[in-house]
Amino acid sequence: MCRLMNISRSGYFKWLGREVPASESENLEIAQLVQEYDDRLNHILGYRRMTLFINHYNGTAYNRKRIRRIMRAMKIQSVIRKKGKQYTRRSGTETAENILKRNFLADKPNEKWATDVTEFKWYEGKAVKKLYLSAIIDLYDRSIVSYVISARNDNNLVFRTFDKAIALNPGATPIFHSDRGFQYTSKSFKYKLQENGMTQSMSRVGHCIDNGPIEGFWGILKAEMYKLQTFTSRSDLQAAIVKYIHFYNEERLQERFHGQTPMQVRTAALNTDNPEQYPIPFNPRIAKFKAKFAA
Question: More exposed terminus of the chain, fewer Cβ within 10 Å: N or C?
Fold first, then answer.
């Protein structure tokens, strides 16, 4: 073995009998944790969230640069997203101004909601089938307030999502932001918003970033779940979507909240007497944006 690997016999036996340094032993333990979380979560963690998960669930305080070095040595990295498609412009019958103006920060739950519909494909032999997901996200804690899955992208899909959000959050009167899809520009939907005392806001034509938070959620969901496998039945795809949204709300730690999940932040704020006084854990990037919009 030494001859084939071009090393000396004395060097091999010296290495065999050496005392393993504490730092190297600790790196091996970290490597085992990295491999465990990477396998369990289907390769969705980059070094930042890998550091969050390891420190949160093991009571450690490892530096993210150390985790990155170990992940590079193991050739482990998160899945990479592809660029999204360019979509054509549409005009509707009932449009609204962009009241949100990319201010994606909120001081309390149910102050600002954003919504959209996205498409998934599954395969039945050579036939391509489609499934649609409509969801509403709260900009305070980035939790998914409600969602509905359907084989049809129609008004009923969006209306059911809205009604479900109202049932789960009675009395909520947020700014309701969307793109200019045909469901949101209908007179019926505008009436539903007015009936519930909500202010409608819409992205400008051709500016997807105006609805950044929900677009970002689609990207996360598809990168961490949908694009990692091929679905051959509607039931499997639907079950995977439901499972992932539960994971996102209840288990996916977010760096913006210093290692808390969206539902942990939301529950804490809703259970206090004055939600506006409940502080989201300090994050320099969020503080920077707050200062920008305050000015």
Answer: C
